Amino acid sequence: MSKDFIAHEWQDLIIAFILDNPRGNVWAGMGMGKTVATLTAIEYLRLAGILTRPVLVLAPLRVAASTWPDEVDEWNHLKHLKVSAIIGDADTRLRALKTKADVYTINYENIPWLIEQYFKMPEKKGQKRKQIRKWPFGMVVADESTKLKGFRLNQGAKRARYLAYVAHKSARFVNLTGTAAPNGLIDLWGQNWFIDAGERLGRTFTSYRDRWFQRSFNGFSLDPLPHSQKEIEEKLQGACISVKPEDFFDIEEPIVSRIKVKLPPKALKIYKDMEKTMFAELNDLESVEAVNAAVKTMKCLQIANGSIYTEDGSKKYETIHDAKLDALESVIEEAAGMPVLVAYNFKSDLDRLKKRFKKGRVLDKDPKTIKQWNAGKIPILFAHPASAGHGLNLQHGGNILCFFSVNWNLEEHDQIIERIGVMRQRQAGYDRPVFLYYITAEGTIEDLVRERLETKASVQDLLMNAMKTRKENT
Description:
The protein is an alpha/beta fold. It has two domains: about 10-245, Tandem AAA-ATPase domain (Rossmann fold, 3-Layer(aba) Sandwich); about 255-470, Rossmann fold. About 40% of the residues lie in helices and about 15% in strands. The chain has helices at about 10-20, 35-45, 60-75, 90-100, 110-115, 160-165, 190-195, 205-210, 230-235, 265-285, 290-295, 300-305, 325-335, 345-355, 365-375, 410-420, 420-425, 445-455, 460-470, and strands at about 25-30, 55-60, 85, 105, 120, 130, 140-145, 170-175, 215, 220-225, 240-245, 255-260, 305-310, 315-320, 340-345, 360, 380-385, 400-405, 435-440. The strands form five sheets. The protein has a seven-stranded parallel sheet with strand order 3-4-2-7-8-1-11, sandwiched between helices. Strands 12-19-18-15-17-16 form a six-stranded parallel sheet, with helices on one face. Strands 5-6 form a two-stranded antiparallel sheet. Helix 1 crosses helix 2 (about 35-45). The chain is globular, with a radius of gyration of 24 Å. The two termini are about 20 Å apart. The mean pLDDT is about 90.
């Protein structure tokens, strides 16, 4: 059910900036609601007759497929916007592109395919591109724009080079990111070129590099000159708005974001069958004890996470879906290089996490692991809440915790949060917010687990109420 939108102060700033600046960078920290703010600005521009052509949103795959369309569905004031997600195989993408809509979303990997629908790209250097049909988009939004940081005029990723052909054919272009320069000022040129074609920071990356950077002592990396920070900031005045969580939030409390994923139809059917069996078994018991009830729900939780053990006590499992892995990838991309602590529940979860995220490490008993995490040398750390209990200090390594999966154990949940929590951040001298992400499967028993963690209600009471509701609805 959609709801009314009341903009926060920082969202009003983002909306006003997009309205007043046809081309600009919105640097808004994690959890600031920049997606709905951008969509609101798009709707205002449409209503005012300023934006008469569709909007193209570039985003990571899951964000393009779900986040932007879901955001439109969530808010009443956006109900007139139609979103078409250009994802899937080539035929599916083409149908989505031909569907009449106000906003089209596409993942970065498919940018070359999209551009080729409108231009015949040169096969050799020196050849000119040939226009096949008119470029239809009046505005482009690059969500997680750090993906464009590597752009160079004559080299770099193919998707950014292709996008460069059309970036200035749209009157409006907005970069959205939480961390504009994860690796330092060197990351800014590529992104900002799509805003002004190098007007502010230099027509070429070489000119940008030579003006504001020098080779480091190791001869490989580039370090900014002493005057660079101030001068670059002055050059970007009017082209950027920076909205930091610590300027608006009470950072003495964690900033919580809930990411709901939809199970694919096949996975949803498997889940519903298992849930029906679980409730039937619980209903047959004369009295539901919390421990027994929690055990009975484990199969449902496994499916919600994306896999299920094929035999009790077996290490063998069957993968059912990757929806949560895709969601976690979006969180990691939004973190833009900042380390992320990931809480998992089952060993099958860990196995799948390690396969997807090759740079991830497991929190084990080796003291070196914690030292390396706290030194910033581990970008993704997988930890079971039971192994991250009392006494561990992980606050130096990061301030982002994502629950890939949740369980009923309230103490373990609170303890892993405390490892990087607000108190420890302050004790270590860090004046930064703590971000908590919960990835949950929509319409599953994870909703009950989340209610348990938030309200501290008993497992027994939650399950009994759920069974009662189920009976009333059948």
